[in-house]
Amino acid sequence: MSEVYLNxxxxxxxxxxxxxxxxxxxxxxxxxxxPNANIFFNELTxxxxxxxxxxxxxxxxxxVKDGRPLITEEHLKKLxxxxxxxxxxxQEGLIEYLDAGEEENCYxxxxxxxxxxxxxxxxxxxxxxxxxxASLVPYGNFNxxxxxxxxxxNQKQAVxxxxxxxxxxxxxxxxxxxxxxxxxxxxxxxxxxNFDQHAAGQxxxxxxxxxxxxxxxxxxxxxxxxxxxxxxxxxxxxxxLAEELRYAGGLVDxxxxxxxxxxxxxxxxxxxxxxxxxxxxxxxxxREGDVIIGKTSPPRFLSSLDEYSIASSxxxxxxxxxxxxxxxxxxxxxxxxxxxxxxxxxxxxxxxRTPEIGDKFTSRHGQKGVVGLIVPAEDMPFSSSGITPDxxxxxxxxxxxxxIAHLIELLGGKVxxxxxxxxxxxxxxxxxxDALRKELLNLGFKENGMETFYNxxxxxRMVAQxxxxxxxxxxxxxxxxxxxxxxxxxxxxxxxxxxxxxxxKEGGLxxxxxxxxxxxxxxxxxxxxxxxxxxxxxVPVCEECGLIxxxxxxxxxxxxxxxxDTVEINNIDxxxxxxxxxxxxxxxxxxxxxxxESKY
Length: 600
Prior knowledge:
alpha+beta, 27% strand, 600 residues, CATH 2.40.50.150, Dna-directed Rna Polymerase Ii 140kd Polypeptide, Chain: B, Domain 6, 3 domains, Hypothetical Protein Ta0175, Chain: A, domain 2, extended, six-stranded mixed barrel
């Protein structure tokens, strides 16, 4: 007897499990059982499992009988003519959805040529094992799986043409590539997904070689001539908004140029771009700290007594200024209302970005790298046919990562550029490398993609042959202009008196436990005296009881609240965070006694 489980609950027993499973599948294909049900026969325990629950990953496969797929040429023609739909294939039992359990009982063929009488199913297309972005990677079956994942991930971060109506949208933190292009080496998915409507990269010439060590460790070397001609140029957009809020007691915010008697008034220089209505004008060139929208608010705390006094009438400054570390040009000003009917002002700032050292670029194969050097066009190496590469890519990124598709794409891009056509690089169904090599030979180039290069500075011919070709490169949204950050002195946290955290808050760069260890290991432990004094504070400590004493600034005296005036009190340097933890110990009823020793 075999047990039958429905959604992991025992439903009954059967004598002939194999027959039951076969009948179940037949009836499901005829439409007598819901196509959502999957059945799985466990060979070891001889149990039958039926699954109908939500949340299962299921995938469609073509049903195979006697080594032949049930979908014929006739069906394909009907599909092309729209005489038949996907739903019809499902209803007729030509295609069925399998889950992970039922797949265990199946023998799936990858392509039609591999079919044998033992096979039960056929893949619709091997490409269907990949997601949308992974299927955009050309020649993906020549890459290591982790790199294919990285390539899919990188494409999501590429700067491109994200929406055609970008000029009237107020999107947060977006980038727009100025000259997006359609890739020369494409996959089937590029056409299905209309990739040319929202392209996110550019076709450029790449040479695989070293250049003075500036493309060491995944870095790339850029040609300044390419940047001057528009390679990798983009614009960064960021909106700011202010609204006139209403408060209790009929008080409201007011968008205008603040008066000088307003509490927190900045300076006339900060408000210089504001027009009469308190809003900045388009095309103003602004830097951090410049006010974009002038605004005043009623005072924060209104007590009953203050209502009648003159002091309470002073409003406070609450203008919107450009954030720390940002600059740009005012692109668009929108004056509207929000849901509550309050006046709403939105101002978009644009910042043109030309690639610079530290910006991140990648191919579609997870070969990401930052710009290590930008070389003048006249100093770049050039080929015997006079071609100067746009990017010099390091050869050391290939052997360990095994991204062979990166190399094939270079070859395919070269063929496509020379013959003026798009190359099909669909995973598992691409133009074969041999065909590309033959075509390249007919076009007058070496079939292996190698070329003779000359040193751009000396004009000498290079001894080694350089592998060069065309490739689709993407600029990623991780630009150094959004991340560059340093500080000397600045704002501190109220509780710990240590510097704030993060670039937006003008924070410091933390030197932590591990960084401390590296200094000590390096033999530079005295550096820690300088590093660890961001919250240095001087506290009076009682010699008798070891608690922190009181320093009376007005009377110029120090005394211990426990021992009185008679004991000796010394001022010592400690971290404020340490003083804080002593206070927290006291609140727990623990007596933290400081035992002082003479320094000398």
